[in-house]
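Dear H.,

Thanks for agreeing to be a second pair of eyes. The structure we're designing against is below in token form, covering all 437 positions.
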């Protein structure tokens, strides 16, 4: 029985998960593959830091060149993160005739189109299951399991840090700052949590998943992105009174030949299955025209779940090597000459329902003035809560029927200029028509 040589660049948390999975499941992997995956070299700039998984000293190096120049290494795993150095590594690996596995969603969101084209040109595979949803097989599901479908909708929770924070705010009444501090103490959030809490990490993942689902190039720069840092516990409480939960959602839809691609806090009905996804878990709901509704749920990050996804890509790449069929499945699911760049709607063109919270003077006629401005833009109010007076001010909370975002923005700009309104309006979009899988 033969072997496939593997080199790993990035001996961090996920790298440790890969090494441990290869060791613990070596017999299972060999039985499924018909060959042995042999980790030959591990590269990292810091070889002295204590890690949960050890590596024999003779396998370690600080030089990527030791992996790129080793003829016995056929697959390179990139787990170093970041953009510039990781891009250089992947390009060099492909130029040296090596297949690549990566978990780097930021890199693929920014440079994926270029890297996929290079891999195709070189007749090599560039695999990336772990880049979207950690251990959840989202890429494989979209690219293979649902290959016979027209995907109509992607709708999900793709960042465990943000979901943990919102869960603690909802279930325990914590402020955003306190929930974030707790998430950092538990290792769910980085010291600089910007990518997670401002929705950027989720947007990276949605750009990749959307490209596979809809047969279009990765268009990260066109994904509308908002985070959760401005969510107040009072909004969570009011949302519950209306029968909703607040989640940071990734939403992609093909609507009349144009794509909606957006990431933002969203009110979803409390009886929707995604409303019950708690803590650091991820979940994604897919709709296909043949299969209907599909739900994938699990750990979206972590040493072993993400390591599991990387190893699944290793096995696929090794199978391609053994069978002489690299690139058998196009990286973005569609044949390169059959895909097309689909226009992504600006957020101003979407239509949805809305949650508004106004802070206004406690005087007669305030509600009628606000309602009048909304009505003049064709925005119909579905429900109102007005309570919790404090001194001379009162919060007025509304949910609307479906309206055009550009009309909503115009109305709120006018309302926020009223002397009776004391602070900028809080806006959160609502997804009432989400399928209740």
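And this is the sequence the design step returned. I haven't edited it by hand at all.
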């Amino acid at each position: 029985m033969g072997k496939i040589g593997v080199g790993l660049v990035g001996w961090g948390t996920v790298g440790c998960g890969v090494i441990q999975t290869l060791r613990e499941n070596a017999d299972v992997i060999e039985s499924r593959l018909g060959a042995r995956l042999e980790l030959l070299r591990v590269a990292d700039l810091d070889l002295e830091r204590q890690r949960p998984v050890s590596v024999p000293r003779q396998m370690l190096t600080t030089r990527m060149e030791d992996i790129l120049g080793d003829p016995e290494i056929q697959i390179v795993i990139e787990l170093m993160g970041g953009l510039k150095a990781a891009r250089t590594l992947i390009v060099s690996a492909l130029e040296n005739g090596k297949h690549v596995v990566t978990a780097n969603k930021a890199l693929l969101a920014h440079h994926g189109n270029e890297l996929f084209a290079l891999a195709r040109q070189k007749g090599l595979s560039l695999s990336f299951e772990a880049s979207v949803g950690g251990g959840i097989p989202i890429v494989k599901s979209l690219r293979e399991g649902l290959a016979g479908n027209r995907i109509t909708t992607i709708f999900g929770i793709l960042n465990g840090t943000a979901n943990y924070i919102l869960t603690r705010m909802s279930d325990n009444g914590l402020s955003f700052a306190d929930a974030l501090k707790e998430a950092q103490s538990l290792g769910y959030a980085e010291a600089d949590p910007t990518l997670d809490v401002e929705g950027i990490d989720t947007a990276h993942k949605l750009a990749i998943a959307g490209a596979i689902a809809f047969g279009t190039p990765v268009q990260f720069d066109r994904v509308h992105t908002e985070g959760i840092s401005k969510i107040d516990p009072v909004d969570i409480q009011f949302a519950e009174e209306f029968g909703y939960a607040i989640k940071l959602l990734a939403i992609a839809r093909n609507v009349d030949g144009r794509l909606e691609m957006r990431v933002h806090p969203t009110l979803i009905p409390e009886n929707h299955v995604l409303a019950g996804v708690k803590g650091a878990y991820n979940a994604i709901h897919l709709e296909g025209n043949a299969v209907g509704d599909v739900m994938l749920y699990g750990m979206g990050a972590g040493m072993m779940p993400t390591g599991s996804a990387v190893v699944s890509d290793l096995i696929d790449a090794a199978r391609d090597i053994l069978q002489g069929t690299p690139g058998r499945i196009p990286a973005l699911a569609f044949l390169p000459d059959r895909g097309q760049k689909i226009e992504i709607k600006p957020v101003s063109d979407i239509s949805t329902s809305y949650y508004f919270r106004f802070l206004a003077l406690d005087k007669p006629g305030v509600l009628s003035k606000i309602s009048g401005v909304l009505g003049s833009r064709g925005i119909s109010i579905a429900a109102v809560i007005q309570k919790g007076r404090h001194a001379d001010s009162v919060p007025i909370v509304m949910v609307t029927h479906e309206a055009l975002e550009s009309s909503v923005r115009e109305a709120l700009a006018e309302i926020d200029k009223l002397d009776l309104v004391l602070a900028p309006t809080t806006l959160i979009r609502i997804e009432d028509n989400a399928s209740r899988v």
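Two observations from my side: The two ends are 45 Å apart (CA to CA). The first helix runs from residue 13 to 24.

Warmly,
E.
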